């Protein structure tokens, strides 16, 4: 509906009607105004499937939703690094929403994986904001191409489940901008989601729902967001201040309680009615955008979409280890399938995103009729207890086979919405099973079903490790195709796998103290920390093996010197040097060679997935702008590039850099400088204008004449004197110049220095 018509419609509404539109009618519907023909709109949980509840509604999935299709969760879709594939997945979800009359699907969830312990990591994409933002943007693009809205969530700094409705994420400005906001920024500014969902938590002491800087100044003012902001379910704390801050829609219904607060605030003169009108207009704009673009011909073809889920899953499975090229397996050899997840895979997480799948394909379903595959349960999923009979059966089967494939991972009791993991380990019964099978079968492969990293004490005792993540309802079929070589694995890890939890940079501070959670690791999240510290990890960010091999060559940059207002074009050739068609994820990292601020040794600034036939070469290109070289300057409150040399790194992972080139970037922005008595001479020496002014003072004999024959010369070296001078503040002249400089002279010098800026 055109804006003029919307505004005219709002003028016809009573104050009470307008207030009612700012909260839900129930759990899943916006309010209608029958008198004016204003329809309700249904929203539904997502983001990897449609969780539409027909009857009794609840937020955490305790009541059944309609039969639907479960696609791979965010942990897996991010591993695909394939924007086009995830856009097609989004198109499928959008079609399903149209068929079911759902106007907005609640996702994608892009919160950064700060720690492996976050119970909701399975929904989230990555420890890296570029990956999170780009993959979320791809999903948004696909869903919204079908005239169905998305709700990117949870804004902002929502990285744990513990005390999530009351905790305050204490994050410095630079870290917020470079890591936690950046995950949202690109997706919001480029793909324009219809809605943004604010989180439960506080940010530096202010609840997200009433954080005006985040919801209005940044989200709308800087990023150009033009939809409505909706609360996470139950995230409203103070309705009128929330509305003023930019929270438009409260979900679910407050039963009229908060609507009355809005009405009373307007009547009492404590709330400008224009603020209410603005929120109503934003909400109705989206309601009518969906209503006027309903596709009555849309069909929810569950079997067709199951096949799409399988296709997506094929590119979300990461091959982590393949010693002696044991994989792919032969379909004709005797193989032992072991583990409950082979028969009944764990393919999604628990909580509000849980899909009532219309069918589930386990790996055992795909091979049970082959005649050469045996199955043993191995462990029970409902209790972490070693079952000797189950293990004995598994060991017996494995010892007779050519190879054993163990399907393991994390049960729902270990990771789910609502609570955080207590540790990074797998169930002890599963670890014991893997150890015992590997002891009798050298050709053991472990397939993992989990939403984030796990410790692998058995990793050196098995020949193959396959990370299947939570791959959706068709994960079993996709895994079998990977294991037996019908599909070439092409996924890469969107997160680092440390050896142990204690290696994680947030380990000491995660969960915080009471309701205060300090993000003391700052920008050093994931590989930014591990790589900068040169710390060994089990598997690095961006890592993933293939059944073929790739060679990188001919790296070119469009210039070796640019200004920060220019763009740099980068190209590299990739060749499939193996014997099987495959897809490779080419990763571009940027490293600031010398910086005055503390920065990670490298940061991902581009990635592209390219498909190659055996022997085929393709050129992959990247375009880098200012942001690729910039950090967030807290003095400018803006992105800033320091003049200097940067390295362009092309890699297969953050630890496997194949090629590099250098470029000098010249800053066009001068950071304002104000010199004080505490400014050091070393800082002055970096400023050419300042050096000209202080040159006479530098000739003074600071500290007196040094006698080379004096025994003190052995204690006071030239290097020591230079260092003392470098780190001496200007005021030190008064103490060490022997009265040759007065306070008035020094004050005048400061005035000259600042006037020259």
Automatic annotation (TrEMBL):
<dbReference type="Pfam" id="PF01915">
    <property type="entry name" value="Glyco_hydro_3_C"/>
</dbReference>
<dbReference type="InterPro" id="IPR017853">
    <property type="entry name" value="GH"/>
</dbReference>
<dbReference type="Pfam" id="PF00933">
    <property type="entry name" value="Glyco_hydro_3"/>
</dbReference>
<dbReference type="GO" id="GO:0005975">
    <property type="term" value="P:carbohydrate metabolic process"/>
</dbReference>
<feature type="domain" description="Fibronectin type III-like">
    <location>
        <begin position="584"/>
        <end position="654"/>
    </location>
</feature>
<dbReference type="InterPro" id="IPR001764">
    <property type="entry name" value="Glyco_hydro_3_N"/>
</dbReference>
<keyword id="KW-0326">Glycosidase</keyword>
<dbReference type="InterPro" id="IPR002772">
    <property type="entry name" value="Glyco_hydro_3_C"/>
</dbReference>
<keyword id="KW-0378">Hydrolase</keyword>
<dbReference type="GO" id="GO:0008422">
    <property type="term" value="F:beta-glucosidase activity"/>
</dbReference>
<protein>
    <submittedName>
        <fullName>Glycosyl hydrolase</fullName>
    </submittedName>
</protein>
<dbReference type="Pfam" id="PF14310">
    <property type="entry name" value="Fn3-like"/>
</dbReference>
<dbReference type="InterPro" id="IPR026891">
    <property type="entry name" value="Fn3-like"/>
</dbReference>
<dbReference type="InterPro" id="IPR013783">
    <property type="entry name" value="Ig-like_fold"/>
</dbReference>
<dbReference type="InterPro" id="IPR036962">
    <property type="entry name" value="Glyco_hydro_3_N_sf"/>
</dbReference>
<dbReference type="InterPro" id="IPR019800">
    <property type="entry name" value="Glyco_hydro_3_AS"/>
</dbReference>
<comment type="similarity">
    <text>Belongs to the glycosyl hydrolase 3 family.</text>
</comment>
<keyword id="KW-0119">Carbohydrate metabolism</keyword>
<dbReference type="InterPro" id="IPR036881">
    <property type="entry name" value="Glyco_hydro_3_C_sf"/>
</dbReference>
<dbReference type="InterPro" id="IPR050288">
    <property type="entry name" value="Cellulose_deg_GH3"/>
</dbReference>
